[in-house]
Design brief:
Blueprint (H helix, E strand, L loop, with lengths): L2 H20 L5 E3 L8 H11 L8 E7 L2 E8 L2 H15 L3 E8 L11 H9 L1
Parallel strand pairs: 1-2, 3-4
Antiparallel strand pairs: 2-3
Helix pairs in contact: 2-3
Length: 123
């Protein structure tokens, strides 16, 4: 007769684990000094949090003089750019500065013509 309480406990644990798995950390948060107008910062953070494609990102929105500064990490450069677009749309006329670092960066070398460089150095 003890199997029913054990089954109930197991079901409760399973449902709790599922709920925890669904509860994700927010993508963005904001920081502000005392007396700062947090309305625009909160609006930007909420807009970033509403964008599912920014998953696995961690972004901080903070005032920087007359600008809004985005810092943190995104998985790719494209997601960093997307975060800036979303923040700028939510910020209205306020300039958004992107200091977000992508986790993965691709470096591209400019095309290099060795023959032209060799000729130029002879001359």
């Amino acid at each position: 007769m003890k199997s029913k309480p054990i089954q109930r406990a197991a079901a409760l644990l399973a449902s709790t684990a599922a709920a925890i798995a669904l509860a994700q950390e927010p993508i963005a948060s904001f920081t502000a000094s005392d007396g700062a107008d947090v309305g625009p910062l909160n609006a930007i953070a909420q807009a970033l949090n509403a964008e599912a494609s920014l998953g696995n990102s961690k972004i901080t929105v903070q005032p920087d003089g007359d600008h809004v500064l985005l810092t943190g990490v995104t998985p790719t450069l494209e997601k960093s750019k997307k975060a800036t677009e979303i923040a700028q749309a939510a910020a209205g006329n306020t300039v958004v500065v992107n200091a977000i670092q992508p986790e993965h960066t691709t470096y591209q070398m400019p095309e290099y013509d060795l023959a032209k460089t060799a000729e130029a150095s002879k001359g």
